[in-house]
Amino acid sequence: MVTSAVVRTCVGCRRRDSRRQLLRVVAGAGPDGRPAVVPDPRGTAPGRGAHLHPTTDCLTLAERRRAFPRALRVEGAMDLAALRMYLNRAEPTQNWSTSS
């Protein structure tokens, strides 16, 4: 029996990828009480989720397209600070030095 990987669509670039390659995000509350996009790396948080490649490029695309309120079914703008901080920590830093 062949089992296929679960496939989800990134709300930023709209490319389909396996669930393991994407970061799940959910709607939560920011420090000021406004709706916020909260990372859910384990994929266990309750509520409606959306998926995003864990890169700042896809975050920028999703923000420009206003994809989070639509995907998470929340009215109005959403705070992305927690997600942006998570992605900045998670993305590997690249050393562009050519010296050995």
Automatic annotation (TrEMBL):
Residues 8-75 form the YlxR domain. Residues 29-54 are annotated as: Disordered. It holds the Pfam family YlxR. InterPro entries: YlxR (IPR037465), YlxR-like_sf (IPR035931), YlxR_dom (IPR007393). SUPFAM superfamilies: YlxR-like. It comes from the Bacteria. This is YlxR family protein.
